Amino acid sequence: MATVRASTPSETLGPPAAERPIPLSVPELRGKEWAYLKECLDTGWISSVGPFVSRFERKFVDDYVGGAAYTVAVVNGTAGLHLALRAIFVEPDDEVIVPALTFIAPVNAVRYCGAHPVFIDADPQTWQIDVNQVERFLAKECEVRPDVEGPGAGVSTQTCWNKRTGRRVRAILPVHLLGLACDMERINALATAYHLKVIEDAAEAIGVRYHNRPAGTWGDIGVFSFNGNKTLTCGGGGMLVTRTPAWANRIRYLSTQARDDQREYVHREVGYNYRLTNLHAAIGLAQLEQLDTFLQRKRDIARRYREAFAGTPEITPMPQQDGAAYWLFTVLVSNRAQRDALLDGLAQEGIEARPLWQPIHMQPPYQGCQLAGSMTVATELYERAVSLPSSVGLTDQELERCVRAVRQIVATHHVLH
Question: pTM higher than 0.90, yes or no?
Fold first, then answer.
């Protein structure tokens, strides 16, 4: 459970700053969150219908997405990914191209649809999905041929097929990791050439810009997460973004139990209870009003970490990108043993840190799924990476305490080994 970090005078009370635990990434609640929540309670609008839901959706378009886009607020990012895949008609026994290095949610969403993941390694320079490996997989192991199955049956359309499995490859699902961006220009070009849809997982990428365009707006559908540890939080929640009104309408329909009649309870297909509540949207709106300040602090924290570790050869900072938002600043150390020593040592100092995700192809539910090639980079990043405290409310003194602790632990472990 995330601890709320609020900027209040009470921060001066309690243990000295040097002794207080430093969390990894917690909410910063210093805007109109309390006022908006009180409005929800005073008016009785607390469930999945209410004015803050539509206000949050509209402001997300106006302030973040820009242009002619449609948004649908949902209960969390995972639900959003499931809805996005359903909206583009990912069906049982289809395949979806996914990164091996990611939080498990996007791959789980593929399986919710009865589809199969095809795993791609990480790029060693960007840590994002390796587009070169995607291109090799499509060129060598897939073919495009007419398809008369699925939606629009009876009309011949060009579809990508996996020659090894005989299954239709429906989509590619790039995940923008750690506040960096995938190479969306190349991904979109490959998707066009091989007749794939693109679902962009921007759960960790609020505020990230790729070629001066927001992450989450390059694909057919973008999905954001507002979990408690994200830069912008609702306590939970997510947002889908698309420029295709038919998909937005279908997503909204599926997210409200696929109800077909405003008076009668009639449902033509299986739907889901995935809509965001008015309470959560109220928090999200207050957070969105502060987003520019939050993003500036994230970038400042990343710059300070990078400068602090510049003279420490045992520590390699995460990649640097124009337009990045650095959700969790992450470093590489020499090996798994040093990584574990750093995690243990920081915990003893009251500093929360965490490793990257174990690559999904190594997880028990996904062992045996198709690999598009070697997963060596994803595995190495998992073995060596540590994410450091990156809360918007992280003070300069806390950051310096983190830096000193990391340097001391790494130096000590390096001498002992």
Answer: yes
